[in-house]
């Protein structure tokens, strides 16, 4: 049968005004989800219509970090996403009991991502953020096929080893001809009570990734921000209240808001 239709992804249609950013990292634990959630909340706080797809099958921590504890509901053929802080969110974790998702293979992930993009009622979004799994995996390739216009935002720590894997994650955009919008360096330093900056994870990783990706794509890839370590950023994630909302003037929050402004 040749009449099976591919689902229509509104963001991939000509004339779609939604900007799509895929947040990528080389490895887990660098704060990719924390950055995604805070950027989403900051953009929504500016009055933009924002959605987040949590495609990180290993982590799927976005709903908790956003405080989106509602369940998706079905209305006719559409999935209505829960929302929190003005951000619509859908997560692979909402459809998989326990950790079943981690055994998923490429084709199932591709289908899931396709459904999230085509069958979820997003409405007329200004910005869609996708929290990708760490590394250069199947999901990144699927996304490039489903949504070639998605731009890549790379998150790294200052550590050289982390930066090298982040470069590899970013360089997938070369093969897929996607634009790299910039690099966010997270966990850049810890401010000590005397005002000194302790560089817990070293320094230079963000600049290193940006330079290497700039060389590779032949265009300037900027470092969009450096986010310091802040216990309250983690606490905000645990409590479902992003720091950019609870204390926008905290240095980590201010840095994230600046990144959101530069997107
Ligand atoms: P990833 O999505 O890359 O796996 P997460 O966003 O889950 O990383 O972050 C890993 C852990 O580090 C979480 O507990 C998170 O709260 C914490 N974290 C992330 N960024 C910061 C930061 N700048 N300061 C303090 N804790 C952070």
From TrEMBL:
From what superkingdom does this record's organism come? Bacteria
Q: Where does ATP bind?
A: 26-33
Name the UniProt key words of this record, in alphabetical order.
ATP-binding, Hydrolase, Iron, Iron-sulfur, Metal-binding, Nucleotide-binding
Q: How does it assemble?
A: Homodimer.
| Function as written in the Swiss-Prot or TrEMBL entry | Binds and transfers iron-sulfur (Fe-S) clusters to target apoproteins. Can hydrolyze ATP.
Family that this chain belongs to:
In the C-terminal section; belongs to the Mrp/NBP35 ATP-binding proteins family.
Name of protein:
Iron-sulfur cluster carrier protein
Source organism per UniProt? Dactylosporangium maewongense
**Which residues of the complete protein appear here?**
99 to 361 of 380
């Amino acid at each position: 049968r040749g009449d099976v239709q591919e689902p229509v992804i509104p963001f991939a249609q000509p004339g779609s005004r939604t900007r799509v950013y895929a947040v990528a990292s080389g490895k887990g634990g660098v704060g990719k989800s924390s950055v995604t959630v805070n950027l989403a909340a900051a953009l929504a706080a500016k009055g933009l219509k924002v959605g987040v797809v949590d495609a990180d099958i290993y982590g799927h921590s976005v709903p908790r970090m956003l405080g989106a504890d509602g369940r998706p509901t079905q209305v006719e053929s559409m999935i209505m996403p829960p929302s929190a802080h003005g951000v619509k969110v859908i997560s692979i974790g909402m459809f998989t009991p326990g950790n079943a998702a981690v055994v998923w293979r490429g084709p199932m992930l591709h289908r899931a991502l396709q459904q999230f993009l085509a069958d979820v009622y997003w409405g007329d979004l200004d910005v869609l953020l996708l929290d990708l799994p760490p590394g250069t995996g199947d999901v990144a390739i699927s996304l490039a096929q489903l949504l070639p216009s998605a731009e890549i935002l790379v998150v790294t720590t200052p550590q050289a080893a982390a930066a090298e894997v982040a470069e590899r994650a970013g360089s997938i955009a070369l093969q897929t001809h996607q634009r790299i919008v910039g690099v966010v360096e997270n966990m850049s330093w810890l401010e000590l009570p005397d005002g000194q900056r302790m560089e817990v994870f070293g320094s230079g990783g963000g600049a290193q990734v940006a330079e290497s990706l700039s060389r590779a794509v032949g265009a300037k890839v900027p470092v969009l921000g450096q986010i310091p370590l802040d216990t309250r950023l983690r606490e905000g994630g645990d409590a479902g209240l992003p720091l950019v909302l609870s204390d926008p003037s905290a240095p980590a929050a201010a840095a994230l808001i600046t990144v959101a402004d530069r997107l």
